[in-house]
Amino acid sequence: MHIRDVLAEDAPAIQQINREALGYEFPLSETLAQLERIIKAPNDLLLVAVDDADVLGYIQLSDYENTYHHSLKNLITLAISPRHQRRGVGRALLTAGEEWARADGARGVRLVTGVNRVNAREFYAVNGYAVRKEQTNLIKWW
After folding, report:
1. Quick one: how many helices (H) and strands (E) in the chain?
2. How many CB atoms lie within 10 A of CB 123?
3. Neighbouring C-beta atoms of residue 133, cutoff 10 Å
4. Which whole number is the average pLDDT over 69-74?
5. What is the structure's pLDDT at 111?
6. Rg of the chain's alpha carbons, rounded to an integer?
7. What is the model's pLDDT at position 53?
8. CB burial string 100-116: b at 16+ within 10 A, e below
9. Domain harbouring 105, CATH code
């Protein structure tokens, strides 16, 4: 297994991981469009863990800046194919993301995960993440 920057050709594998691991249905064409957009973003990191040609999982981080504390990185997504979970893939991706965050001057990494994602919450706790506060996630679409 090795970790590399995402490629547009990874879109089908990422779409499948999003469906199987996270329960998100999103069309392939739109997954590809989002990947291309993220790849061009100057302050985003999107890495995949691969074994030969197989994408095992991915991590996405971006800047999290505000006026009331030091710079952080926002862990947007860490998702591993169910067929490859519990093999160290998530830990390897998380370590790579944290190294990038540290090298870019961030003072830490923050993330939001659903209360129903018990395994994810346990994974993050084992890897040194602590619950800071419970929140309600709101969105307005247009």
Report:
1. 4, 5
2. 19
3. 4
4. 95
5. 94
6. 15
7. 87
8. bbeeeebeebebebeee
9. 3.40.630.30
Q: For residues 72 and 132, is the Cβ–Cβ distance under 8 A?
A: no
Question: Does residue 27 form part of some domain?
Answer: yes
Cβ atoms within 10 Å of 23's Cβ, excluding its own: 8
pLDDT tens digits for 7-25? 999 999 999 999 999 999 9
Task: Name the one residue in this structure whose structure tokens are 């594998």.
Answer: 13
pTM above 0.90, yes or no: yes
How many CA atoms within 13 Å lie on the side-chain side of 74?
Answer: 10
Residue 138 lies in a domain: no
52-65 pLDDT, tens per residue? 989 999 999 999 99
Q: Which long-range contacts (CB under 8 A, 24 or more apart) does 105-108 make?
A: 105/71, 106/64, 106/70, 106/71, 106/72, 106/73, 107/69, 107/70, 107/71, 107/72, 108/70, 108/72, 108/73
Q: How many CB atoms lie within 10 A of CB 69?
A: 11
Residue found under tokens 């197989």:
54
Q: Please check whether residue 74 lies inside any domain of the structure.
A: yes
Structure tokens at 45: 């990191």
Q: What confidence tier does 71 reach under pLDDT thresholds 50, 70, 90?
A: very high
